[in-house]
Amino acid sequence: MCGRITQTRTAESYAREMGWTDAQYRQQDWQPNWNVPPGSEPLLMHQFGGKRAVDSVPWGFRPKWAVDRKLPMMINARLEKAATGPAFRGMFRNGRAIVPAEGWFEWTGEKGHKQPWYIKLKSGGPMFLAAITDFRPDRELQEGSGFVIVTAAAEGGLVDVHDRRPVVLAAEDALLWMDNSLSSEQAEQIARQMALGPDCFEWFMVSTEVNRAGRSEPFMVEALANR
Question: Which active-site residues does the annotation give?
């Protein structure tokens, strides 16, 4: 799940929503994108070393042992296993970050006839998706480095769209999530207890043009019924 997101506001806008007034911004040719795919470099919010910043970071991660085996990049991490699993536990302990977004896409239907759905907050505001990363602003990125989005089991009506969902946090809880002085156990509790529930979201079918990973247009997040 969560194989595409939208990211259409500026880094400064996301920072204001978070209450950051002293953030650093390092964006490489970033542009608003209504169809952000894995492998690209969307905005990632973090506060490593106590310094708040927004960077463009690759979406995807492959541990060093998987690089040599040419295994595929991972784009999501299950909350149930991320804190203790060998692939992610180090990042879960010391590399918690946030992916800001306006929404994400899911697909239903048979292969070859997939129908995309768009999920966003009813409030119309930005989302803060829990993520973990091995990126650090003072280190050069290595092959396979990047971030993954933390996911949990879907609830309520969201189950009809997909059985998994990203862990979406309110701004104040996102700040806690990014506090890497907290233990893995404390961070897991935040993700489990403070993730926004299905009543906070709305979802609807959108154009199949979303299926083309290189296409990015505002109409892609418009409900089919409204077009």
Answer: 2, 106
Q: How far apart are CA 45 and CA 168, in angstroms?
A: 14
Distance of CA 139 to the CA centre of its chain: 22
What's the CA gap between 4 and 167, in Å, rounded? Answer: 14
Residue 197: Cβ within 10 Å count: 11
Other beta carbons within 10 angstroms of residue 126's beta carbon come to 22
Convert the pLDDT of each residue in 46-85 to its tens digit: 999 999 999 999 999 988 876 677 778 899 999 999 999 8
- Nearest Cα to 96, choosing from 49, 54, 133, 135? 133
Express each pLDDT in 134-187 by its tens digit: 999 989 888 889 999 999 998 887 887 888 999 999 999 999 999 999 999 999
